[in-house]
Amino acid sequence: MGYVAVKGGTLAIEESIKRLKLERVKQGRTIEVEKIQGGMRGLIDQVMSESSLYDETLAALAIKQAEGNPEEAVFLLRAFRSTVPRKHYGRVIESSDMQIERRISASFKDIPGGQILGSTTDYTHRLLDIYLKEETDQSVQAWVKDYLKESLEIGEQASKLTLPKVLDYLRKEGLISTCENNDQEPDDVTRQSLAFPSTRSQRLQILTRGQTGAVTSFAYAVIRGYGDLHPTVGELRVGKLPVTINHPLSDGQDENDAYYIGEVKVTEVEMLMPVLVEKEYGKKEMEFEIGYGLCFGQNETKAIAMGILDYCLEHPNKEFPSHNEEFVLYHIDSVESSGFISHLKMPHYVTFQSKLDSVRKTKKDKRQEVKS
Amino acid sequence: MKLDMVHDLQSVYRKLVHAYSRPGQLANLRKEAAIVREDGNEECPTPILLIALTLFDQEVTFKVLSEKAGMITKTINQLTYAKQGEIEEADYILVLQDAETGALNKAIEKAKSGTLKNPHSSATIIIEVTEITAEPALELKGPGIKTVEYVQVELAENWIESRQSKNKEFPLGVDLMFVDQQDQLLSVPRTTQISENRVMV
Amino acid sequence: MNTAYNFAFFDEGSKREIRRATLKAIAIPGYQVPFASREMPIGRGWGTGGLQLTLSLIGKRDVLKVIDQGSDESVNAVNIKKLVSDTTGIITTDYTAEATLIQSRHRIPEVPLTKDQILVLQVPLPEPLRYYEPSESETKKLHAEKEYSGAWLMLFEQIMKYGSMTTGADHPVLVHDRYVMAPSPIPRFDNSKMNASEALILLGAGREKKVYAVPPYTKVVSLDFEDFPFEPETFEDKQCRLCGSTGVFLDELVDELTDETVYQCNDTSYCLEKLNTVGVK
Question: Is the pTM of this model over 0.80?
Answer without folding.
Answer: yes
